Amino acid sequence: MTVEELHDEVRAIDAIYPDSVTDIAPQIYTFKIPNHECISIQLTFPENYPEESPQLLQIINDNRSRFTDNTYLERNINEILQRAFVPEQVMLFELLTELQEFFDRYVEEHPVPPSPPPEKKKDAEEETVTTAPVKKKESVNLKVEVDPTIGWKQSDPIIDRKSTFIAYARKVSSLEEAQSYLNELITDKKISRATHNISSWRIKTSDGIQFQDCDDDGETAAGGRLLHVLQMMDVWNVIVVVSRWFGGIHLGPDRFKHINSAARDVIIKGQFLDAETNNTKKKKK
Known about the structure:
- A hairpin with a 2-residue loop joins strand 2 (28-33) and strand 3.
- Helix 2 (70-84) packs antiparallel against helix 3 and helix 7 (222-233) packs parallel to helix 8.
- The protein is an alpha+beta fold.
- It is 42% helix and 22% strand.
- InterPro entries: Impact, Impact_N, RWD_dom, UPF0029_Impact_CS.
- Pfam families: Impact_N (PF01205), RWD (PF05773).
- Residues 108-133 are annotated as: Disordered.
């Protein structure tokens, strides 16, 4: 990979996660962890990246009271870095996704204890009155945000001239379910920032009624082409969403090629094609 290609990959990450990347020096960048911006990692990239893995230079921890053990964090980040690296394949998006999941688990497993109320001299009547509000504050701290992408299969990112394409897919059994899943997915911070979220679905009910439709979301003709891919692959009871983050350079017809490629990738990865094919074979027998 050339230096310019590395720059393209870094710019694509910055398009997905705005203001998350800092260029420190040639081949050295700092990346903020998505949803945990108080933690950043500084990586140095070798000249022959992606044949050789980048190296972790340091962890920048702006919340030591929340993430107290830097040695523990460094060990786990290095393990994730080694696991995400595949020779000759770009890795930054997968790396940041895994790091976000790691810190999500860390926060969930290490909740911050509620602060004790300030000590004041009160008579018995005052203490009785303030007991209930303290319990309510503790219950608020137990709320956990749900990841909107849970249950969705995800394609590998496709990066071309600073634009990034990622496809998501999951099983559905009704139009209401498809719309509900779609509405939930686009609440994700990263996906909500996409320039377009093209979607298509094909549904076959138990009584034989069939539904299929699509939505361009501003990318003219893209929805119909995505639906055509689902028809050609003969998959049913699935919704596919292809997110595109525009990088500022128009791709022309190549954008449809990338949308189709991402859709095929997620259908195969999620085994939606295999399940449908096996069912068809059993019916023929």
